Amino acid sequence: MLGAAAFAGWWFLVRDDAPPEADIEAAGETLDEATTPGSGSASSDGSTGDAAVDGTWTVDPSVGSFADFTSTWAGYRFDEELVSIGTNTAVGRTPDVTGTMTVAGDEVTAVDAEVDLTTLDSDSDRRDGALRTRGLESDRFPTATFRLTEPVALPAGLADGERATLSAMGELTIHGVTNETTIELQAELQGDAAVVVGSAPVALADYGIDPPTGLSVLSIAEDGTFEFQLFFSRG
């Protein structure tokens, strides 16, 4: 009995409760709910087949809830080594994302997005506070941005409810440093609403970021992930 209790206590300390990565299946379910008539959120015209997607799409903060990460969000995912606990996955996210996506013909011709890093929230207030003045230094560099640098071809005849897997090349700016990056993403369309989920690798050294270790943090992985889930509405 004592052994079982000790094991349970150990598991509670070392278990990794990091939220799962963005998933197009789950995001698609949220989009379905948001586009259902009478939902009060983004609406779909119910069209199928070769739905026109031309126009300017704007990040829509009204879909889903940040409390369960069903809304628009962006953030980071890094492994860390904690004193007396061991390996842990640190995940911080913010719903404060703005931006637009322009579609013309069969291409996404422009994407401009901005993330407010000062509102990043993780499971540790201590971590969040440290990142304001060390590491990410969000007090000095309050935003991260992404700008598409090459058009992204869309599958021919993309229809409502269909999903596409794409790669987007662009400039990612973090900590005042801009680097070319390729973001792997998936997207789903529902009338005048859409969701895009994706991620890109981030090496701290490439952005001049010193890992903010401390008394309780032994080390932070040099390589991590920038990840996001963005809902868009057109018009």
Structural class: mainly beta
Taking pLDDT < 50 over at least 5 consecutive residues as the criterion, the unreliable ranges are: 1-15, 39-51
**Order of neighbouring strands in the sheet with most strands:** 1-4-5-6-8-9-10-12
How many distinct helices? 3
CATH architecture: Beta Barrel
CATH topology-level fold name: Lipocalin
Give short descriptive properties of this protein:
single chain, mainly beta, 235 residues, 44% strand, disordered N terminus, 8-stranded antiparallel β-barrel, Lipocalin
What would your notes on this structure say?
It is a single chain. The protein is mainly beta and about 240 residues long. The protein has a single domain, classed as Lipocalin, CATH 2.40.128.110. Helix content is about 15%, strand content about 45%. It contains 3 helices and 12 strands. The protein has helices at about 1-15, 25-35, 125-135; strands spanning about 55-60, 75-80, 85-95, 95-105, 105-115, 145-150, 150-155, 165-175, 175-190, 195-205, 215-220, 225-235. Strands 1-4-5-6-8-9-10-12 form an 8-stranded antiparallel beta barrel. The longest helix has 13 residues, at about 1-15. The termini are far apart. Residues about 1-15 and about 40-50 have low confidence and may be disordered.
